[in-house]
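Q: What does the predicted 3D structure of Methylmalonyl-CoA epimerase, mitochondrial look like?
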Amino acid sequence: GLLSRLQTSAPTIRTLSSSSKSFSQNIPSCLWKLGRLNHVAIAVPDLEKAQSLYKDVLGAQVSETVALPEHGVYTIFVELGNTKLELLHPLGEKSPIASFLQKNKAGGMHHICIEVDDIKAAMTELKKKKIRILSEEPKIGAHGKPVIFLHPKDCHGVLVELEQA
């Protein structure tokens, strides 16, 4: 009947036995380590409305608005306990967030930020691995620490920010 057909057509799942090689044996050691997710950044067309949603409706702890002219953005951080959301709004016409919002009128996820223990070593190694970095040198980010961005086409469509931990 149906049960026997489902049992015979179910995919076989292989498990790694203790005699199998460990995954870590196949991964070359790095001079730097990837750390925790620092934040997920969301571009928003209306910063006050977005801030109100997280603060007044959802009850989150929300920072004051900070202007970051070097990055062309206004930023607000929403504390979530285990990580943060970064609300981004354009600061000036040449802001990368302005062009993002032209294509995505309602806003949306802009990038993820992951901490690294050695940003310079990460840059050197990533360049060797043909991962494009969107600046020659790290810039100081919203947390006062060096940051770089990796090209989304090299990261499966995701803009990845690395921040010195």
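A (community wiki): The structure tokens above were generated from the sequence. Confidence is low (pLDDT under 50) at residues 2-6, 17-22. The two ends are 58 Å apart (CA to CA).
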